[in-house]
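Supplementary material to the annual report.
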Amino acid sequence: MIILYKESAIRGFGKGIKTLWALTKIVVPVYFIVTFLGYTPVLDKISNLFEPMMNILGLPGEASLPLVLGNAINLYAGVGAMATMTLTVKQATILAIILSFSHSLLLESAVANKAGVNLGLVVFIRIGLALLSGIFFNMIL
Amino acid sequence: MDITVYLKESFMGSMSSVLTMAIIIIPLMVVMEILKDAKVLEKLSLRLTPMASFLDISKESIFPLIIGIVFGLSYGAGIIIDSTEDGNLSKKDLYIIVIFLLACHAIFEDTFIFAAVGAKLWLVLGVRLIVAIIISYIASKLIDAKKLSKEY
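Predicted assembly:
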C-alpha cells in the first residue's frame, strides 16, 4: 500500500511535519510559561481558586489552566499546559474528553456560524457537552 | 528560583512532549493522506448510507459528514460548502452535519494528540463519536418537530 501510494505518503509526511510545527510553536511556549508559573505563587492561586469547581469534574485545580487555554486559544495550547502536569490516566482522559467537545471556541464557533448555525446555540452545545461529559466520566471512571 | 533548572526542565519537558507527538502525528498523517488518495472515504460513505435514514438526512450528506469527522472542520467545511452550492444539501442536512461535527471532528488527529499526554485513546474517540450520534439524532427529531409545528 505504501509503495502504491508513495506520493501520498510523502505528502502525508510533509503534512505531518507541518502539523507538528504548528503544534510545537504553541506547545513549547505554553510549556515554558506554565512551568514558570509553577515557580511563582500564581499557579497555586489559580489552582486554589478553581479547585472546588474542578473537583466536580474530577480534576485538580491546576487543570483549569489547560481548560482556559484550550478554549481561548486552541487545543494545542491546552495540550501544552496538560503536558506540564502530572495527571492520572483518569484525569487526563476526562480533560481530553472535555477539551475535545469544547476548544478554540472563538475560531471554530465562527466557522459553524458561517455555515449558518446560530452562534449562541453552538457555544451552548459545546460547553454543555463538555461539562456534562466531565461530570459523567468523573462518576463512572 | 534557579534559572538553569527552570530552563532545563522546560526545555527537556517540552521537547519530550513534542517528540511523543511527532511519533504519533507523522505516521497518522501519512496514513490519512493515503486514505484520502485511495478514496477510501468515498467507499466508506457508500456503505454508511443507512446512517442517513437514521439521522433523517439526505444520502449526499454522508460524504461531507465523514470527511469532517476524519479530516476536521476546515477541510470538511470546504466540502460542505461545495455540496451546498451544488444544491445537494437541504437546510436540515446542513444543520445536522454541523451539529454532528461540532461534537466530533478531526477525530483521529485530536484524539491521538491527547493520547500523547496520557489520555485513553479509544475511550475519548468512542465518547466523541457516540455523543455526536446522540445529539445529532435528537437535533434531527427536534428540527422535524419544528417543521411540523410550522405547518399547522
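The CA atoms of residues 10 and 34 of chain B lie 36 Å apart.
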